Amino acid sequence: MPELRYDPLQHRWVIISTERAARPSDLHASTKYNSVKACPFCEGFESSTPPEIWSIREPNTSPNSPGWKVRIVPNKFPALKIEAGGKKFGIGLYDMIEGVGAHEVIIETPKHDLSLPDLPPEQVKWVLLAYRERLRDLYKDTRFKYVLIFKNHGMSAGASLAHPHSQLIATPIVPRNINIKLQTAKSHYEKKERCLICDLIQQEISTNTRVVSIENGFVAFAPYASRFPFELFVAPVEHNYSFVEVSDDELERFAHFLKNILYRLKQVLNDPPYNFVLNTSPNIEAKPKFSDQWVTIKYDYHWHIEVIPRLVRIAGFEWGSGFYINPSIPEEAAKYLRDMKSE
Amino acid sequence: MPELRYDPLQHRWVIISTERAARPSDLHASTKYNSVKACPFCEGFESSTPPEIWSIREPNTSPNSPGWKVRIVPNKFPALKIEAGGKKFGIGLYDMIEGVGAHEVIIETPKHDLSLPDLPPEQVKWVLLAYRERLRDLYKDTRFKYVLIFKNHGMSAGASLAHPHSQLIATPIVPRNINIKLQTAKSHYEKKERCLICDLIQQEISTNTRVVSIENGFVAFAPYASRFPFELFVAPVEHNYSFVEVSDDELERFAHFLKNILYRLKQVLNDPPYNFVLNTSPNIEAKPKFSDQWVTIKYDYHWHIEVIPRLVRIAGFEWGSGFYINPSIPEEAAKYLRDMKSE
Asked: Is the pLDDT assigned to residue B315 strictly greater than 80?
C-alpha cells in the first residue's frame, strides 16, 4: 500500500509509491513518450484502459466502446487507490497516512492529435464539465480532503502519452501550496472581510499592464511575481470559491475563454510544453469537526487555474530554496499574448 | 535593474531578471551545454571570466592567472548585482525590492573532468573552505539576509557548463523554503527547548533504516518523506546552526564525508545529474531590529545539505500543489547506498 508521509520540517506531504517501487536502474529522466504499439486513449482501443468511470457518449453506445466524446478511466499505474487505507499513524516526529485516494485520467477527445486550443468550444466545455462532475462525485467521499485536477501537455511537462488528457488525484490531505493559499486567503478575509483573490483581480484590472484577456466574465493575467516565463493566472472575475459551483452557462463561457488563452500561448510560444492546475476549494464536507479551518472558505477563497509553460530548466537554486529567477518580465509576456490576434 | 517581487498568495519572492529579459523565441528548454570554444573555467583561460573575487593559489602566483586550486568569480550573467538597489516599495497588494545581491561561481578545480567525488579530499576541503569564507565575507554586508550556496551537476540538473562548479546567490530576503524551516524549527524550540533537526537526526540514528552513513561526526540519511528518489539529508550530528561556524578540522572531516556520499550516489546511480543546496542560518546581523525572528536561531537551527538526484521528470501535479509522488522507497534507497562499498 502506498504511504502518505509528512515532512515535519517543510510541512509537506509526499506519496511514497511502494507498489511501483523503482530500482536504481529504472530511474532515468525519460526523453521519449512511452512507446505503445497503439494509443490506449484512441477511439477503438477502449479495452486497453481500465473500465471507464464516466463518459459523455453518443446515444445508444455502451461504456468501453466507441462513440464517446470525453472518457474518464482510472490511471493504470495509480499513485493512490480508492480501496482501504486511510489509517493515520504517528511515528516519532513523523506522520503517516495509509495511502487512499483516486487517480484518474480524463481523455479529452477521441482524436489523437487535437489539443485543447484546436478543439471546438463545445468539446472543451465537455472536458470542463467532466472536471466539475468528478469533483462533485469525489467530494461525496469525506475521506478525500482535496481533488487536484491538472494537465501535463508535452513530454517535458511530464506527459507520458501524447494523446490529449488531464488527470485528477484525490487525496486525504490538502497539498502544501493549496494550504498556503487557503491560510493566506483566510487571514486576509479575517482582517478585511474581502476575498484576497478578488482584490488581486481588481488590482490587475485597474493597473491593466499584465492582463492578457478579460472577456465573458473571466480574466487571465501574468502574475506580478511570476515564477516562470509566460505563467498565467486564470479566474472568474466574480467571486466563486469552488469549481463545483460553476453553472453550465459559465462552463460554456469558460470553455471559449480557456481555449482562447491556450491558443494564444500556442501561437506565441510555438506550442510550448505546459502544465495547468485547477486550484479549487477543498472538500468542506471533510473539514475536521472542531477546527476553524475553512469556516469562511465560501467567502475567502476563489477558484483559479495556474498555467505554467515549461520553457526553462529548473535548477538546484529553485528546488532547494523555493525561490525563483524568472528571465522574462511579466508585463512583456502579457503584452505578447495580448497582442496576439485570436483565432 | 532586476526586481525582487513578492507573491502575496504564496509568500514567495521571485527575481524578475529585467536585464537579460527573454523574448519568446529565446525560450526553449536547452538540451545541450552552452557551446563555448574553450571552457572559461579551465586553467589558462582566466581572462574569459570576470576578475576573481577569491582564490586559493600556489605561492607567488597572481590573481587571474594559472596556479589556483579553487577560484571564485562573479557570474557573467548575474541574477542580482552588488551595486545600488535595495529600496523597498509597496505596490497595492504587492511588494517589491530593487534587485541587490551577489551571484558568484565557485570553480571547484582547475581540471575540467573531475567532479567532487573524484577529487582528492584536500581539494574538496578547499571547496568547502571557499563556501565558508564567502559566507563569512558576504554576511558582513547587512543588506544581505541570506546566502544560498548550491550546486547543479549535469545538464538536466541545470548546469550550463560541464566544468565542476557551484554557485552562490546573496539576497536581501530569505527564500521561502528556508523561511518555512526556520519557522518550524523556532516553534519546535519554543515548545521543547530542543533543536528539531537534532531530534530528527537522533530519531534517524536510533531507527537506523534510512541512514546511509554516519562517520566523523556527520550523518547522511534518506528523509522519511523524501520527495525524490535517492534524496539525501546531510548534516553534522552535533548541533551547529551555521556553516559560518564550522572549524577547519570539521571542514576536513566533512570533506571526506561528503566526497564519500557523492561517490556512493555516483556508483549506485551511474553518475546521475543532481543538485545540492546548503541550508545554513540567515545573516543574523541583518535581523530586523524589532522582530523576534531568529532570536533563538543559534539553538533552534542546524545547518544541513539537501542532495537531490534528478532522476524523474517533474510534472504539473508537483508544480501546482507542492505535493510529490516518489516512486522509490527511502528505506530501499538508503540500503542501496549503504551497501555500496566505498572507495
From this structure: no
